[in-house]
Specification:
The complex is a heterodimer of chains A (242) and B (311).
Chain A (H helix, E strand, L loop, with lengths): L2 E12 L2 E12 L3 E5 L6 H8 L7 E6 L2 E2 L5 H7 L1 E4 L11 H11 L5 H11 L15 H14 L4 E5 L7 H15 L5 E5 L3 H7 L2 E6 L2 E6 L1 H6 L1 H6 L3 H6 L1
Parallel strand pairs in A: 3-8, 3-9, 6-7, 7-8
Antiparallel strand pairs in A: 1-2, 1-4, 4-5, 9-10
Chain B lengths: L5 H18 L2 H25 L8 H16 L6 H23 L4 H21 L9 E2 L4 E2 L2 E2 L5 H25 L1 H11 L1 H6 L4 H27 L1 E2 L6 H14 L6 H19 L4 H15 L5 H9 L1
Antiparallel strand pairs in B: 1-4, 2-3
Helix pairs in contact in B: 1-6, 2-6, 2-7, 2-9, 2-10, 2-11, 3-4, 3-5, 3-9, 4-9, 6-7, 6-9, 7-9, 10-11
Classes of the chains: A alpha/beta (242), B mainly alpha (311).
């Protein structure tokens, strides 16, 4: 398999705080990769650099051979990289259906209405179609946020904590829907996650961040068994001491 | 699916107003002509408000439209109302197209204050220009419409009828626009610009297009107002005039393209009555009315009609 996204020597600092220190990663087409790490480890900064929200101080990000640094989020979306957010970014006064119609319109879908119905159906959102986004439960907001990101038919999908703030019994349902929607579409999925059960169940590769650095990269079994990861990410030692 | 009642309502309003143009007394024709002219400006303001922007400087384009129309007859000797309306609209749109390049980058109070600043620059220039009549302004006379000479005494009725047709066309176009992808995109920008950019659309482009359209509508409104009054002066660009447009927009609400015209008519009617019977306190009455609207009808008077039709 070929690498679709290659990041090389990424550095990003906010004053004295280093959010990315020599981060070099590559992601293969159609792979599902989880980014794990404690709060402030640099996971979201990494997503923000890939999507153009932040410009790295040094290093390069290449998508299908094209350099992404210096491009705006809008341009990067146009290249085929879309994202969802930790706090769902929706159009609160618009209905769920209108949210998706906006996205379909931007994606220049030929039959926006039909395409919207299809997305509503695929994500189990049909019964919420007429409801304003502001009134949705958190799990549905997360789903809608992911659905919006998928409307543009991305080649790379970045999900920032897709199950955070969602009731425990809804998490698998949400992930099943999301993974079902991207299956067979040739999409590379990178998702930031804190729930290790979700990580083990849905991804084939895990990248662990700590203090802006990548401290482990490999299969879930190998990374989650790594001593540094258990100490700095899962926090086992601290729990044991307590 | 709910039926779209805007088109029949617009057609009925248009028919009634055309009837008024032919039969109503002159004072009512004048009042309605002024209301429609201001309604056109407020329609553009509503478009901006739907995008999440409040302009306190639409007086700039209202004044430009009025002066461009007036200068055509006063200086160029082209006293054709159709040409004057086109000149007012095009002139305002052209200036909006230039200023919009800068203003489309700003939001919230910065957008409001910058737009106000530009309108006050025009006001200052008009006040200082003796060639344009300084604070007194100057009169204009339109003697024909689209090449047809107008009989004395009929001019204002004809101009009003034309403004009714303009209202119909512009409101219909805007209604379609708001229901289209670009209209939804405007509302999406008001809610969440970040998400719009991350979906791949240019927020700047949508804001710019809406700003130029609002400027053109204000220019058209200015030209119609100049034709109705027969006089232009720097007050057209003054900040209180811009504030009046914002007042009318809040009074009517942004729920429908007919709301600006309805609220402009109510505003002009109230002002006429208040000027007659309480000339010294009418601003206070308007202030109280605004307080009541914000407290009890934050969506504007249009929500009353919506509630009634929903019931």
């Amino acid at each position: 398999m070929s690498a679709v996204l290659v990041c090389d020597g990424l550095h990003k600092s906010f004053g004295a705080v280093s959010a990315a220190a020599d981060v070099s990663l590559s992601f293969e087409r159609e792979s599902v990769v989880s980014l794990i790490g404690a709060n402030g480890a640099g996971k979201t900064t990494f997503l923000n650099m890939v999507t153009g929200y932040l410009k790295p101080d040094r290093g390069s990000i290449r998508f299908e051979g094209r350099e992404l640094t210096g491009h705006t989020p809008r341009e990067i979306t146009g290249f085929g990289i879309c994202r969802s957010f930790q706090i769902p970014q929706l159009f609160h006064s618009l209905s769920v259906r209108a949210n998706l119609l906006v996205a379909e319109g931007i994606a220049a879908a030929e039959r926006a209405e039909e395409a919207t119905d299809e997305v509503l159906e695929r994500f189990g959102l049909t019964r919420y179609g007429g409801q304003p986004a502001a009134l949705l439960p958190e799990g549905v907001r997360k789903l809608l946020d992911v659905a919006l990101a998928l409307v543009a038919r991305p080649k790379v999908l970045l999900l920032d904590e897709p199950t955070s703030g969602v009731a425990a019994d809804e998490k698998y349902g949400i992930m099943d829907l999301v993974m079902g929607a991207v299956r067979g579409q040739g999409v590379t999925v990178l998702f930031v996650e804190h729930d290790m059960d979700i990580v083990q169940r849905y991804c084939g590769r895990v990248v662990a961040f700590y203090d802006g650095r990548v401290i482990a990269d490999g299969t879930p079994q190998r990374v989650l068994g790594d001593a540094e990861v258990r100490r700095y990410v899962i926090g086992e030692e601290a729990h044991a001491a307590a | 699916m709910s039926r779209d009642r805007t088109l029949p309502a617009l057609a009925i309003a248009c028919a009634l107003l055309l009837g008024a143009a032919a039969l109503a007394p002159q004072w009512l024709v004048f009042l309605l002509a002024l209301a429609l002219a201001k309604g056109l400006v407020v329609l553009g303001l509503v478009l901006l408000m739907r995008t999440g922007l409040v302009s306190f400087g639409q007086g700039l384009y209202f004044g430009l439209g009025a002066y461009a129309a007036a200068l055509l007859s006063h200086r160029a000797g082209l006293a054709d109302a159709a040409l004057m309306i086109v000149a007012g609209t095009v002139c305002a749109a052209a200036v909006a197209a230039i200023l919009g390049l800068l203003l489309a980058r700003y939001r919230e109070i910065f957008f409001a204050m910058l737009s106000l600043a530009f309108s006050m620059i025009l006001y200052g220039a008009l006040v200082r220009s003796s060639a344009l009549g300084s604070t007194d302004g100057f009169n204009l006379h339109a003697k024909a419409f689209a090449g047809m000479a107008l009989a004395a005494g009929l001019e204002r009725r004809v101009f009003f009828a034309v403004s009714v047709v303009a209202m119909f066309c512009v409101a219909l176009l805007l209604h379609r626009y708001l229901a289209s992808h670009w209209g939804r995109l405007s509302a999406a920008i008001r809610d969440n610009e970040l998400r719009v950019e991350y979906l791949g659309a240019s927020v700047y482009r949508v804001v710019y297009v809406n700003y130029v359209a609002a400027g053109a509508l204000a220019g058209m409104g200015g030209a119609f107002a100049a034709l109705a009054v027969g006089h232009v002066d720097p007050e057209t660009a003054y900040w209180t005039t811009s504030g009046e447009f914002v007042f009318i927009a809040i009074l009517g609400g942004t729920g429908n393209v007919l709301a600006p015209f309805l609220s402009a008519a109510i505003f002009e009617g109230l002002r006429t009555v208040a000027n007659q019977y309480a000339p010294n306190v009418w601003q206070m009455s308007l202030g109280l009315a605004m307080l009541a609207i914000i407290m009890f009808l934050p969506g504007g008077l249009w929500t009353l009609l919506r509630r009634r039709s929903a019931a």
